[in-house]
Amino acid sequence: MMSSRKLAQLSVICWVAVLFCQSVQSQLQVGFYTNSCRRAELIVRSAVRDGINKDRGVAAGLVRMHFHDCFVRGCEGSVLLDSTSSNSAEKDSPANKPSLRGYEVVDDAKTKLEAECRGVVSCADILAFAARDSFDLTGGISYDVQAGRRDGRVSLIAETSDLPAPTLNVDQLTQSFAKKGLSQEEMVTLSGAHTIGRSHCTSFSDRLYKFNGTTSQDPSLDATYAASLKQKCPQGSTDSSLVVPMDTSTPTISDVSYYRDILANRGLFTSDQTLLSNTATASQVNSNSRSPLGWKRKFAAAMVKMGGIGVLTGTTGEIRANCRVINS
């Protein structure tokens, strides 16, 4: 448990971050492109649907990409920028490569938007729309996305240290999200994004073979589940292509199976299973597991709030012509 001093410090961080998020969110608005590019959201949704039809896993990639964008420099599209000869960008960090996917969907949407409304729709907004549509098209719900973000011009691999790692415990997760103005309950809610998608074995293999100095396997892992994971992720393997589904039963559907897995000690990451180690977060896991629609509504609200982190609006930033490179 956190000390009272740490809790007080955390409350101050949360309050400052929330005030900042509220001020920038007020500059975003639903229907931002109604007059300047009326079909913007429809074009993005079509590109996302096409991408999912080709590869169901793209949906998880786009939701995660929006999250990873917002947690580094704010929601301003820096995760989409390619590295150059003089700079290593965020997307080439081990935290993002090779796990992030869906860049081609963003490219497709951007190409079509530039053809219809040149220089109007930002890459950051495309990503926010695409995350919403990915959630909706995989069994979640749709929700209004505030838009008006502009694109940043900087992407630094070193700054991906802001991303919460899969090895974090519940206190570390709470602090990581608090720094971005998100509450502990919103952290638990957004963790539910792990209901879709996959993970590379390297992200959790220590739980199977090198948990700590006295125990090779994480004792919080269900034994049958651990045995199954070991079959798919052999000890000592250097094959970076080995992956397993994040959700044991419905890995392509946005539902509450993620929370039910945690209750059965089948949370894949340490950062998943740790949600049972705290009374408050364990209660939220239980509640979410019993309320599919309730969780979806909370997830939508948390995504909207997250989408306001550190945004560039007005005349700051730019509207990239190509999401992979800054304008010349």
UniProtKB/TrEMBL annotation:
Q: Which cysteines are joined by disulfide bonds?
A: C37-C117, C70-C75, C123-C323, C201-C233
From the Swiss-Prot or TrEMBL record, state where the protein is found: Secreted
Q: Which residues take part in binding heme b? A: H194
Tell me the first and last residues of the signal peptide: 1-26
Where along this sequence does the record place binding of Ca(2+) 1? D69, V72, G74, S78, E90
Q: Which UniProt keywords apply?
A: Calcium, Disulfide bond, Glycoprotein, Heme, Hydrogen peroxide, Iron, Metal-binding, Oxidoreductase, Peroxidase, Secreted, Signal
The organism's place on the tree of life at top rank:
Eukaryota
Positions binding Ca(2+) 2 in this chain are T195, D247, T250, D255
Xref: CDD domains: secretory_peroxidase
**UniProt-listed Gene3D superfamilies:** 1.10.520.10, Peroxidase, domain 2
* Similarity-based family: Belongs to the peroxidase family. Ascorbate peroxidase subfamily. Belongs to the peroxidase family. Classical plant (class III) peroxidase subfamily.
Its recorded name reads Peroxidase
Taxon lineage: Eukaryota, Viridiplantae, Streptophyta, Embryophyta, Tracheophyta
